[in-house]
Design goal:
By secondary structure, the protein is an all-alpha fold. The chain contains four helices and no strands.
Amino acid sequence: SNDAHKNSIREKIIKLVEDKSKLDKSIFDKNKEIDILESSSKEFVDYPNLVKKSREKLSQLKHEMSSIQKLLDFICDNDSCPTCTQSISDEFRTPKKESLSENLNIIKSDLLSELKNFEDINKKVKQFDDIMNELNERKTELKVLEYSHQVTMENITNLEKEFDTPTSDVQSESVILKDMSQRAIDLSTSKSD
């Protein structure tokens, strides 16, 4: 009976050592994933600054466009100055309209280009957010694996002590199994948190 008990403990230890080995590999792999994600996140360090600069440029271009449009509207809509009532000649008005229209088209083009740039930057920011979310998930998974590893090591240690202790001094096997079951329940509960 004592030999059967020791064989049962030996089998449990062997199983736990196999589990520990799998956990070691999982922890190593998870750390590798975390390193890769952390490394790829460094590419995005300057993007908040780029978003700010792009917003400022968009605002500036919109302001310039609005100013030029107002001046162009004024020249097109008025034959004389509303303030001094001086006449605005066609010799002045026509080249000024052309010049303002040309400037307005350039600014519209610049504005469209900057809008595209802003969209691209925001896509990168979204990629960065996705990487950071994934990184946080991997770190949580790592904590669960590390906890499982700790519990497995404690179980191995307890079973090794039991293996070296005479049967009469050992807790009953059902108490040990209940403890292991409770730890597994605790672990699965902590995974879902």
